[in-house]
Amino acid sequence: MDLITPDLGLVFWTGLTFIILMFILTKFIWKPIMAAVNNREENIQEALDMAKKTKAEMEKLQTQNANLLKEARIERDEMIKEAKVTSDGMIDAAKKKAQIEADRIVENARISLEAEKNAAVAELKNQVATIGLEIAEKILRQELSTDEKQKQLAESFAKDINLN
């Protein structure tokens, strides 16, 4: 039963020891422990605040990146459109230049063909005239081979002259 009902001296010394221990703990241990806990709490709160701030900045950066990407796509589309217009212009200019060159070549060929045709016609006329003269000369030699035929021809020319 001694354990259940403590002696007055034991209660006194236990109480005194507890108060001294509480004083020492409060004076020397609780302050550093509480300071460490408070410091840790502040660090955790700062880390949470920093995480929130970083998250907000990340969202802002993602929004900016999305906007930049959108602008880049728009700019790319404009550049592609400009390149298409430029290439179409260059193709049209090349087609026009090729058509002009083709027309010039055709015109030169037509002029050349016309000149060759005229030269061929002139040469043909000369050959026909030469052949005609040769035939006429042969015919006249045969017809004028005798004196009598020559007299008849002279008389027919004379009659034609008088009639005119």
UniProtKB/TrEMBL annotation:
Pfam families noted in UniProt: ATP-synt_B
Keyword field contains Transmembrane: yes
Cellular compartments per GO CC: endomembrane system; plasma membrane; proton-transporting ATP synthase complex
Superkingdom of origin organism: Bacteria
Transmembrane segments: 12-30
Gene3D superfamilies from the UniProt entry: F1F0 ATP synthase subunit B, membrane domain
Coiled-coil region(s): 34-78
Membrane topology: Single-pass membrane protein
Subcellular location: Cell membrane; Endomembrane system
Stored CDD domains: ATP-synt_Fo_b
An MF annotation (GO) of this entry: hydrolase activity
Matches recorded under InterPro entries: ATP_synth_B-like_membr_sf (IPR028987), ATP_synth_b/b'su_bac/chlpt (IPR002146), ATP_synth_F0_bsu_bac (IPR005864), ATP_synthase_B_chain (IPR050059)
Keywords: ATP synthesis, Cell membrane, CF(0), Coiled coil, Hydrogen ion transport, Hydrolase, Ion transport, Membrane, Transmembrane, Transmembrane helix, Transport
Main location: membrane
Known role: F(1)F(0) ATP synthase produces ATP from ADP in the presence of a proton or sodium gradient. F-type ATPases consist of two structural domains, F(1) containing the extramembraneous catalytic core and F(0) containing the membrane proton channel, linked together by a central stalk and a peripheral stalk. During catalysis, ATP synthesis in the catalytic domain of F(1) is coupled via a rotary mechanism of the central stalk subunits to proton translocation. Component of the F(0) channel, it forms part of the peripheral stalk, linking F(1) to F(0). The b'-subunit is a diverged and duplicated form of b found in plants and photosynthetic bacteria.
Subunit relationships: F-type ATPases have 2 components, F(1) - the catalytic core - and F(0) - the membrane proton channel. F(1) has five subunits: alpha(3), beta(3), gamma(1), delta(1), epsilon(1). F(0) has three main subunits: a(1), b(2) and c(10-14). The alpha and beta chains form an alternating ring which encloses part of the gamma chain. F(1) is attached to F(0) by a central stalk formed by the gamma and epsilon chains, while a peripheral stalk is formed by the delta and b chains. F-type ATPases have 2 components, F(1) - the catalytic core - and F(0) - the membrane proton channel. F(1) has five subunits: alpha(3), beta(3), gamma(1), delta(1), epsilon(1). F(0) has four main subunits: a(1), b(2) and c(10-14). The alpha and beta chains form an alternating ring which encloses part of the gamma chain. F(1) is attached to F(0) by a central stalk formed by the gamma and epsilon chains, while a peripheral stalk is formed by the delta and b chains.
Similarity section: Belongs to the ATPase B chain family.
HAMAP family for this protein: ATP_synth_b_bprime
Name under which the protein is recorded: ATP synthase subunit b
Annotated gene: atpF
